[in-house]
Amino acid sequence: MTRTEPTFDELVAAHQQRVLRTAYRLLGRIEDAQDAAQEVFLRLMKNRHRIEGDAQAWLYRVTVNVCNDHYRRRPMVMELDGNFADAAPDAERILVVEQRKRLLMEGIQTLPKGERAAVVLRDIEGLSTREVAAILNVEEVTIRSQISMARVKLAKYVRGRR
To answer: Is 51 helix (H, G, I), strand (E, B) or coil?
Structure first.
């Protein structure tokens, strides 16, 4: 007897880190991302029998939707995590890289939800424009436009914060 459909536990194990990482990048706080990821997997458990096609695409779509809902309900506060007490020779370079990442994450939080989702999925998660368009249920040209506008806004945000 061969089993073709993965169990719920297998789906969670296979996608948990990706969902959590994407939620964190969309929301900016680990606690919020953990709450969102939990909601995503609750929805997966309830709706697993209705998922047709690519489970990964469904999980991204639900993650974006849950994060959008979460984003509307709570004011966003970026985490300033990181331990910079290390006095290693590369500590200054590491500090600069971490500051840039934090600044970029802060900038992402200022974007409208469509642009924020498009940038996170395309530029950070590395999905293709076609995949992002399918996940967000919009045309590819819309994704390209949103990413272009978001990049301009992010560059302006970063320049203004230096």
So the answer is: coil
Return the axis-axis angle of helices 8-27 and 55-73, rounded to nearest 10°.
40
- Provide the sign of the torsion angle of the four alpha carbons 141, 142, 147, 148, taken in this order: positive
- Dump pLDDT digits (tens) for 97-156: 777 888 888 899 999 999 999 999 998 888 999 999 999 999 999 999 999 999 999 989
What are the pLDDT digits (tens) for 59-101? 899 999 998 888 777 654 444 444 434 444 566 667 767 778 8
Element (H, E) at 156: helix 140-161
CB 147 within 8 A of CB 116: no
Amino acid at residue number 139: E
Give the type of residue at 107: G
pTM: predicted TM-score of the whole model, two decimal places? 0.65
Which bin fits 137, alpha (ψ -120 to 50), beta or left (φ > 0)?
left
Contact 142, 107 (CB under 8 A): no
- Nearest to 54, CA basis, from 15, 2, 24, 9: 15
Residues 67 and 34: beta-carbon distance below 8 Å: no
